[in-house]
Amino acid sequence: MEYRFSSNVQRLQSSAVRDILKLTQGKEIISFAGGLPAEELFPLDAIREAAERVFQTGKNSLQYGLTEGYLPLREQLCVRMAQKNMHVTPDEMIITTGSQQAIDLVSRILMNPGDVVLVENPTYLASLQVFGLSGLNVVPVESDKDGMIIEEAERLMKQHKPKMVYVVPTFGNPTGRVWSLERRKGLIELCQRYGVLVLEDDPYGEIKFDANANYPTLFSLDGKEGGGHVIYTSTFSKTVAPALRTGWAIGPRQVIGNMAKAKQAADLHSSTLDQQTLDQLLQHFPLNDHIRTISKAYGDRLQQMQALLTQQRWSDVKWVEPKGGMFLWLELPEGLDSEALLRAAVQKNVAFVPGASFYAADPQRNKARLNFTYTTGERMATGIARFSEALNEFLARC
Ligand SMILES: Cc1ncc(COP(=O)(O)O)c(C=O)c1O
Which residues form the Aminotransferase class I/classII large domain (predicted)? Predict the structure, then answer.
């Protein structure tokens, strides 16, 4: 049989992270590649107790549910959103199978093949996969340590008339960067002027190393000006556990309504067991304290990784210290190809993600993304020693 796949599928590239994982199967590899939270910090007992409470409610807990999501969970999430100055009612919210699905649904309901989406350069790899699968024209906007360069965004809006901008303004993936308030306001102002919708993806915003730091979401800034330009999505994957596959999106009723229709077609609804479990968890478990605990631990892990890298005294390996999130974005010496470095690193049983995969265009090959949340202590020290050995050998050869 000759399978005649769609042209979008033919263009689809497999994720570099998955390819690396394949490469490393069955080996004693220390991986800084995946965006994995620390397993030892998962609130296992609290999730078990929450799930037990759900089962105690009886057989009804196993029934089909609403496409928009379990109402008590949406109500609790609305309260959490209001604490961040995002004021919505449950019918302006949809529960999704991770925020990954929110990105997919938004693309499906708003974009036609060939429509333009602006993205940061670099940006979240799996969003590029979604946009590719939808046949979108992805136009990267030059970005620096403070976020998207607004003048560039404006130039590209005039040139390409995009329908949507996709951004991760707080502790982005892969860069870990946090946008300045000026850039946040600048983008909202542009989108209001040019009638462009923003998809704000915020899985990491709560994982901040300075508990008192305040990074207003684009959604909250837009709200002050009348609203309607931002669809915001977040997830429990990084703050509770990714296995629960529960995220949510908030936005104008019309948009959420159409996302619900698209979701019916995709999966009817996300797991009601997981949603009920999270509802119980939010009622009985101090989630904010837990988020403070993991943020503190991740901040310590980042310090450890930075100290290990600094010990190497490389003059031309640089990074900007992230203020939150899960990733350290390394700039390696000019001309170094981090994909080749990865192959050498894998021989030494350590993995990371080469930077090129995160660019919609003009990939910078001398960048590397290292996750600092999954490993710690001796294991992190061994992993960074292996990485350093690979890099040093590589530099000596070049
Ligand atoms: C920027 C970004 N958006 C979305 C996701 C998807 O998260 P979820 O597990 O909620 O689907 C991730 C996961 O790593 C991410 O880094």
Answer: 40-381
In the chain, what are the domains? Answer: 10-42+288-397 (3.90.1150.10), 44-284 (3.40.640.10)
Tell me, what's the pLDDT at 304?
Answer: 98
Q: Give the phi and the psi of residue 148 in degrees, each rounded to 5.
A: -65, 140
Predicted confidence at residue 13, as pLDDT, reads 67
Q: What's the pLDDT at 224?
A: 60
234 C-beta closer than 6 A to ligand 1: no
**Ligand 1 within 6 A of CB of 92:** no
Answer whether 122 contacts ligand 1 (Cβ < 6 A).
Answer: no
Residue 31 phi, psi dihedral angles, 5° rounding: -110, 125
Output the average pLDDT for the chain: 94
Which atom number of ligand 1 is nearest to the Cα of residue 326?
16
Mapped onto helix, strand or coil, the DSSP state of residue 170 is: strand
CA of 247 from ligand 1 middle (Å) equals 9
Q: What is the pTM of this model?
A: 0.96
